[in-house]
Design a protein that fits this description.
The chain is of the alpha/beta class. It has a single domain, classed as Rossmann fold. It contains 7 helices and 11 strands. The strands form 3 sheets. A 7-stranded mixed sheet has the order 3-2-1-4-5-11-10, sandwiched between helices. Helix 1 runs parallel beside helix 4. The chain starts with a helix and ends in a 6-residue tail after the last strand.
């Protein structure tokens, strides 16, 4: 499976995903992953940024509100249509384009920074994506991205719960199995029993890579490793959103910031 085939799955997910996320059902994004990502993000006021795999533009808008001039790209045309519709409704100066992170339609050094919120793990040609991100960053620019934590979200994963439904351990396996292109079907956990419960499940291709492979690909692309994060929810957040309790037992997400050297040989 290549990025074009994977993109077709995401275009098929886009309407239901946008409707549910905008209705507040993506609690892992809203209450844990994105707040931690933004806390790790350096100041971007007055800078030009590229959001890789922007989806319907939620996170792109949050970065733009920090003063950055943002461009968002996604291979799924339906996602871009939803993002543009919101930009027309409440303008933030964001430009959206249908494009693949494998073949970015921008000149070298066009951006001060790039973000990728939970998107790089969904593209099979990771080396090409990282090479493209490196190319379009100015010297000294950074790439910050989040992915499912490879250690705790490999192809086999199961929450172990006690009699009260509290997660006490995460069972993982097949960490070194090549699961390239396996299709997982799921929806946001908060949707169960809601009025939106009849919407189709998402069909998501998996492209799992062990941590060492991710790190080696980043180094081989020319990046310098800079900062990492493994967000975990507070007790207060878990009381408000019990679905997040398992993320206190093991990291669900991995955040990475890398930088293009100021002087590239």
């Amino acid at each position: 499976m290549d990025h074009v085939s994977a993109g077709k799955f995401w275009d098929g997910n886009a309407d239901a995903w946008t409707k549910l996320a905008r209705a507040g059902y993506d609690v892992f994004r809203d209450r844990l992953n994105t707040p931690a990502f933004l806390a790790l993000l350096p100041p971007v006021d007055g800078q030009t940024g590229l959001d890789l795999g922007c989806g319907e533009g939620h996170n792109t808008r949050l970065v733009a509100r920090r003063g950055a001039t943002m461009t968002g790209i996604d291979i799924a045309e339906t996602f871009v249509r939803h993002a543009r519709s919101e930009e027309n409704r409440a303008p933030l100066g964001i430009t959206y384009a249908v494009a693949s992170a494998v073949e970015l339609p921008f000149p070298a050094g066009a951006f001060d920074f790039a973000t990728a919120f939970m998107s790089l793990m969904d593209i099979p040609e990771t080396p090409r994506v990282l090479a493209e991100a490196f190319r379009v960053l100015r010297p000294g620019g950074f790439l910050q991205f989040s992915i499912l934590h490879p250690c705790f979200n490999p192809p086999h994963r199961h929450n172990r719960r006690d009699e009260d439904g509290i997660t006490y351990a995460i069972e993982v396996g097949d960490y070194f199995i090549d699961a390239q292109g396996r299709i997982d079907e799921w929806t946001f956990s908060a949707v169960a029993g809601s009025a939106h419960g009849r919407l189709p499940k998402f069909r998501v291709p998996r492209f799992h890579r062990p941590v060492a492979e991710w790190l080696n690909l980043l180094v081989e692309a020319g990046f310098r490793l800079e900062r990492f994060g493994e967000p975990s929810p507070s007790d207060e957040v878990v009381r408000a959103c019990p679905e997040l309790q398992g993320a206190q037992v093991a990291a669900y997400f991995l955040h990475v910031r890398v930088r293009k050297p100021a002087a590239v040989r």
